Amino acid sequence: xxxxxxxxxxxxxxxxxxxxxxxxxxxxxxxxxxxxxxxxxxxxxxxxxxxxxxxxxxxxxxxxxxxxxxxxxxxxxxxxxxxxxxxxxxxxxxxxxxxxxxxxxxxxxxxxxxxxxxxxxxxxxxxxxxxxxxxxxxxxxxxxxxxxxxxxxxxxxxxxxxxxxxxxxxxxxxxxxxxxxxxxxxxxxxxxxxxxxxxxxxxxxxxxxxxxxxxxxxxxxxxxxxxxxxxxxxxxxxxxxxxxxxxxxxxxxxxxxxxxxxxxx
Length: 265
Hints:
Elements: E1 6-9, E2 12-15, H1 26-30, E3 33-41, E4 44-45, H2 48-61, H3 68-82, E5 87-94, E6 99-104, E7 113-119, H4 135-146, E8 151-155, E9 168-172, E10 178-180, H5 191-199, E11 203-205, E12 218-223, E13 227-234, E14 237-238, H6 245-264
Parallel strand pairs: 7-8, 7-13, 10-11
Antiparallel strand pairs: 1-2, 1-6, 3-4, 3-5, 5-6, 9-12, 12-13, 13-14
């Protein structure tokens, strides 16, 4: 069975095209549910406990009942069947009470990206919730691609840079320090972002404005599936180097961190 053809539904592992839910499930009808994407290296999940804790927080904030022990057991069953694959597990819990996990392939290469700024206002009521309601994020990606870019960079109407639709944003203005928008600006508490902030001594949270991007020396996106991916330009601003030395150092540090954690698990 191919990497992307396997699923788990409420504890039962089966071909993905046989995993079905009822059309009345509010996870489908209203995007009412929570999800996580967990990177898999040779069949072993990275930061699974972190993902489960965040899923529990999302469910609590969404007033959604969740059985984390069942979720963990489902992920274990899915990976046992999948074998020593590398990719990701997308796991969601719907308002209808269904637990659904899918094995997905992830890109092998991450070339430097072109970004386009897209205006976006984070919904305050969803602070601390990684929900299934991702239509706005996906639309931002499509708008950016219509403008000739690879990915969107979400910016508030007041000009504060937030993040990409599915990734955190890091930038250096001086070639020595990396900054990423603060959680107080209602960006996602990304697990990769959090790990990078702890790994890199010269990385910190700081408000980033759209006007400041013209001074950027280098930048990258960070996420579970991307890890660290360099940015080549934002709109018409071409960055001096992509990937830059800080980006390359971040990628090396994160890869080493993943190897160490997987080896010690």
